[in-house]
Design brief:
Low-confidence stretches: 236-248
Distance between the termini: 89 Å
Helix content: 10-25%
Largest sheet: 2 strands, antiparallel
Mean pLDDT: 77
Shape: elongated
Number of domains: 2
């Protein structure tokens, strides 16, 4: 049995050796090169180091990082850039194969999966609007910057922020974001933009109810319903009646 197995293995090795010499590119290369790299089809080592794969340093011989997105590999201006911002100059290191693969069939020379924002320089990672257009829906039109307060760089959708966990925007509180969040700072809020809400009036009304702590409104008021009040982590009704229930 072992003799038969050795014969089968020998035949396979001979067949592979023949195929390598007859069809070298089909056996060694994973696919055709893009048209722009056609001149390199017979010069594998223009991009690949022996036994080490493709090297980014070899890519940079033709594709100079400071010119990517601005000039072609021949030094001519790009009339129609692929992106609105030549962000390659903001990369922290030269890792071409982290995003690009020449041998990839119909998907060749495209970003493979999601762009890794960790490749960007730290100071650039939070400048989302330098590369991405801001959404034009009613919510995002009121917001500029601070994308990371709701979105992560790993996945844009779904957003990580659920407003109802903090305050329910009912029909009486369907206001513009800047009414409560000033200066595009969505980690802070104020309730003193509507009704009788001024620090003096709020202080007076709460003291009349025997409430001394009222600086963080949403700790007790989680919606626009005046009867929906949480007191020491418990739910109850507003006013003196609600206060007495919680004090008992």
């Amino acid at each position: 049995m072992s003799r038969i197995l050795k014969i089968i293995l020998a035949i396979n090795l001979v067949a592979l050796a023949v195929l390598v010499f007859v069809y070298p590119h089909l056996m060694v290369g994973p696919g055709k090169l893009i048209p722009g790299h056609k001149a390199l089809e017979t010069d594998c080592f223009a991009c690949h180091a022996p036994f080490a794969g493709a090297e980014s340093e070899r890519c940079a011989v033709c594709h100079k990082p400071e010119e990517i997105g601005r000039l072609t590999s021949k030094g001519l201006p790009i009339s129609k850039p692929l992106t609105s911002v030549p962000f390659h100059q903001k990369l922290s290191s030269l890792e071409c194969t982290a995003c690009h693969s020449d041998h990839a069939g119909v998907k060749r020379f495209r970003v493979q999966g999601h762009f890794k924002h960790a490749l960007l320089q730290p100071a650039t990672r939070d400048q989302c609007e330098s590369c991405h257009k801001s959404p034009k829906d009613n919510l995002h039109r009121q917001i500029s910057g601070n994308c990371a307060q709701c979105h992560s760089q790993e996945k844009w959708v779904p957003a990580t922020f659920d407003h109802n966990k903090y305050f329910v925007l009912d029909k009486d509180h369907n206001a513009r974001c800047v009414t409560c969040h000033q200066g595009n700072d969505y980690q802070r809020y104020t309730c003193y933009g509507c009704h009788e809400h001024t620090p003096e009036n709020i202080r007076r009304e709460h003291i009349e109810e025997g409430i001394r702590k009222f600086d963080e409104c949403v700790e007790c008021h989680r919606s626009g319903d005046e009867h929906d009040i949480r007191w020491n982590g418990r739910e109850g009704r507003g006013g003196r009646e609600g206060r007495r229930e919680h004090d008992d």
